[in-house]
Protein 1
Amino acid sequence: MRFLKDDHAYVIAEIGANHNGDMEQARAHISAAKAAGADAAKFQSWGTGLFAQSFYDENADLKEAVAAYAVAESDMAALARYCGETEIDFASTPCSAPEMAALDALDPPFVKIASMDLNHDRMLIDAAKTGRPIILSTGFSTLGEIEHALTTLESVGHTDTVLLHCIAMYPPSEDGLINLRNIEMLQDTFGYPVGYSDHTIGIEVTLAAIALGAVVIEKHFTLDKTLPGWDHAVSADPADMAIIASAARRIPAALGSRRRVVSDGERQNAAVMRRSIVAARDIRSGEILTEEHLEFRRPGTGISPNDAGRLLGRAVRRDIAGDTLLSDGDVERAPSRVGRAA
């Protein structure tokens, strides 16, 4: 997968319509996403043809809002150039074939297919024809529908796909609906890389998805969660996004492997922080060591507490001051049967 990172989860700052139709705000969001450490700034490409006119007729002001938040093709090209200047990947979700073609001309690193189009074979095939990797959100979808979508892509030779586990609610009404273990399940079921598109409030669930192995994180992004608009309330602000971007790097590294390893650093600390066997009191030469002669204190550079048995019953070869670390050289080689009483 060309755009994925070997060392961290790929973080998409989903600006979407949070620019509220203002291109200066759109550029400000791009700059803030870059400063926060996101890998990509993503928008959404639509026109008023997104809904049927009959639906607009039943929903007052919807068409006006769709038009107000839409980004013209020339403006989208300008945003792509600004992303290039800012050194952050540019992407946008197309909502029609013409928008797909217009975005393809801007050379994005991937095509994002929204959950609403997972069951739209024509859109999937158009995306596959670009030859670009596809990120496919799975909101609303059954396993059968996901399988059909992947089969459709594979039928035209496209296998460069990342699935995004997604709950298409803004936000989900309860945490129990999120089912983050679907990240592992989808990968096991279909064998494709899996990420997570997060619509929850806050970032806790986002971080948990990274810990479960999500290779892509998509999170709505805003400069101000209190702004009017569709997605600001469920979005990460710059401080949130900085935490997500940092976690996308640290958590995969920290997950490591299942192999148990004691590092050199731990070994160095063990020498100070573990315990050794010390004389519980002054011990005279010739005394036979018993449990009463032994205490266990730091540092861990002497004999381990678990090896006390090899000292018991053996005669001391010299006078030993109390609270001194004992060594094998302090006792006779073999246990002694006679000696001075304590």
Protein 2
Amino acid sequence: MTRERIGVGVVGVGMMGRRHAENAARSIPEARLAAVFDADRALAGRVGREIDADACGSLEELLERSDVRVVVIASPRRFHAEQAIGALSRGKDVLLEKPMGLSLEECDRIIAAAKHGRSRLQIGFMRRYDSAYAEAKRLLSSGALGQALLVRAVHRDREETNLPASSGITEMMLESTIHDFDLSRFLLGDEIASVATTAAVLCHTRDAHGHAPNAALNSVRFAGGALADIETYWGAQYAYDVRTEVVCAEGTALVGQHPRSQLAVYTRDGATRDLFPGFLERFADAYRAELSDFVSGVAEHRPPAVSGLDGRAAVAAALAGVASYESGKAEAVATTASPPREPSPRR
């Protein structure tokens, strides 16, 4: 007996949302892309036509559809909380792109909505689904390398940004560094206790005034005593470069030390390797695996791999980084006094 495919609706079909929509439509056998919505009606219509999905005229229209059981939210982060709460309160399972919210209060409201609606909520930290990171987690959990002591992480985007100085480092912390806050928690299995962040303008326009920092170094201390050193840099020019090393008592695990392919070309001008231009290329398989796993868990109401509490913890660390940059000292990471329970399975 063939199981009915799960209807997926995608909210926000810019670069990230479109990739989710394409995966639901073309790469995940158990999913069916039912509808898309974007505040840009023309964009929604174009994507809908190209991927063969209904383009809804409003968010309410998409959420009221009975054939949409999973909602993927990939809109700008300022809309995440209200859109997620609207979907969760209607009993939809929600895959919410990071950051979960702009404040811990927003995160708590989203978690409460999931509990009230008895809905599944997963946060879009796709790196956990990357095969190399997943294998590193298994290795660390096995104890084969002994106690994990130190994480060193690099996140370099090829393109630089033109954000005004008034934006500070909030964008960087909530959009980029937040991945490494989550990944270090995931790999170490421990909570972040404090963050000390320093940042500067380090690009070819650094002599011009009015730019937000495009580089940050984050010194992280974990509750159990381990440390992490996280670099975030926008404007590397040469490639999209994401690497992580976990130094343990009896060895070290490295992820991301490989180029895009094993091909190396040598000429009189030197050697060249094929590097990744962006995150969609580097984590293409991870994005597919993430959505496939979430959709496949709908029928049995399987607990999500990345919970609302995981999303909240990453936001808390990012906000501590922002506060540290502004204060010039290490800042403690806010904790959850009474963690809300994850949504219970439907009876």
Protein 3
Amino acid sequence: MTAPDPVNQLDAILRPKSVAVIGASTSPEKLGYQILKNIIDSGFQGPVYPVNPKADTILDLPCYAGVKAIDPPPDLAVIIIPARFVPQALEECGEHGVKGAVIISGGFSEAGPEGEALQQQVVEVAQRYGVRVVGPNCQGVNNPHHPLCASWPLLTYRGKIAVISQSGTVGAAMMDWLTEEKLGCASFVSMGNRADVDETDLIAYFNRDPDTGVIAAYIEGIKRPEAFLRVVEELHKPLVVLKSGRTPKGKVAAESHTKALAGADAIYDALFARHNICRAYTIEEFYDFAKAFAYLKPPAGNRILFITTSGGAGILATDQAELEGLDVATLSPELAETLTP
């Protein structure tokens, strides 16, 4: 029997036909309620199953005592329960035939040795049953084209940019800006601790995704460098990367955030340059570069002309353009004479 393609398996997470929310809550202030509501409000077309043994209904949906009570099994389980209960919940998902899981819960490798042990249990269970897992310690997933928002904030505009982020806050900022400008996104995936699904898996997935025009990835480190290299060599879509942990103290901060191994920044610079990956150095650049690749036509060449009312601004712009490898054009004498008042 042919082994399933691990990239195509991500359809269970980003294009599921049914979703269970394990840890659905009756309290509007809790994530278990908010994410369930966002799944419904995003217009998800399949059945949604709240799992809460202490409730009869939530948001007019009947509750289930456990995932095994759902027949047939859902494609995707969104897990929002205390970390110590997650391995058993995932085991039940695997036994029942659930194909994908998004673990929102924190308290894993980012929280110390006990959390690290719990995360290792999650990995072992996922591998035993072939369940693809996003997270733990993440902000969920959103695919407006499907549509499915198992995350927050709720974004329903469909766009061309697939946002991959190790940081939920960085990803949420991108989603907020895309919403404000009514550009939408192709998908959003908050990777969290990357116990299973990582940036390499997602870049490969969105490289094949017909709704994605540009891939924008915030990363603190590359989990599987050799696999990453193989994937970027096959890229046929623009990839914009915001890589944090550039300084010695920033590297330490990155490694404490999601246990990412940040690595030497010069290596990343060389890697990105070699494979034509567009590197952003600020979150503003990250957004602008992704938006430019998605919605602007590529120029025919690298020549540029500045029109300005400020001599100083023109000089600064010329300096920056030269540093970026652009050819600053000069006006022909005839055109300059025509434009002179």
Protein 4
Amino acid sequence: MSRVLCLFVFLLLGAPARSQQCPIVRDYWPTNGWRHASPAAENVDSAMVDSALTLFATLPANVYSAMVVRHGYVIGERYYHGKDSTSRYELRSATKTIVSILTGIAIDRKLLRNVDQPVVRFFPEFASRSDSVDPRKARITIRSLLTMQSGLTWVEGHGNEYLGYQPNWPVAILSQPMQADPGSKFNYSSGNAHLLSSIVSRVSHETTVAFANENLFQPIGFTLPLLEWSTDPQGVNAGGAGLNLTASEMAKIGYLFLNNGCWDGKQVVSAKWVADSHKNWSNPGKGSGGYGYLWWLSVTVPGAYAAEGHGGQYIFVDPTHDSIIIVTAEPNSGGDDFEPVRTLINPAMH
């Protein structure tokens, strides 16, 4: 066989094609910015979308931004209360979802073995403490944290009572008494998410935000300034809240998951992780559609799921309609009103 023919066979069979690495095909990728289209061009009712965006301005939640993406094109975008496309918003608990994605990337990169690794082994400074003796703590796994089933005592909204003046947040979180066996009961906890951020930082030997920039944010087209993600006293980026993104950046996160972790020929996070992330792993209780790996499953839209933050921060991913909906609001306004999406935007898509 000639050298040229050998080279041809290698290129044909031995070198994986770009499409094989990441088989999602789009007519463009919004790495350098979103393209816009009319709702009608993407088979969406224009009047209903406009009504929803107008209604957002009147809600008590003090909505700051709303953005609708269909088939990769922005078909509706509105800013309120002096905000614009450059404004960054505090995601509150939607930060947890970003930490989940980074956990998946760490597993993809072989920095973590799998979701069944025990958590305590990542924190040797805790193992020697007297409050580590409950044998159930040794059974807390990465999966337990991702599904809010660690069993550790935590009342969400009272984090300062657990962490105030504590120099080592992971130790303070792990030192809480067990209220249930790991994997047995849902209990929403920013502490669980902060343990995950700490683990990502420890196994990658860099800050969580640096790991995110290199492995998640930059591949989809942006770099987060370091000060846009708050830290604990040890400099670990907060896992439960504290991340600030623009509406466009939030939409890119949603679009990455809408495309099964693929972005312009590169598998940023594995398709398996994306699929596992929105499986129903735990039950938050009545009125919930279920809970995945720090993603909330939709009650009203089959197959849809969302990153949600207190006060009205949403990254809503709807694979059935190939759409993403972003909402941000004043976190302290007390509102979590997502009703225009349910009643106007989703029904507008054909």
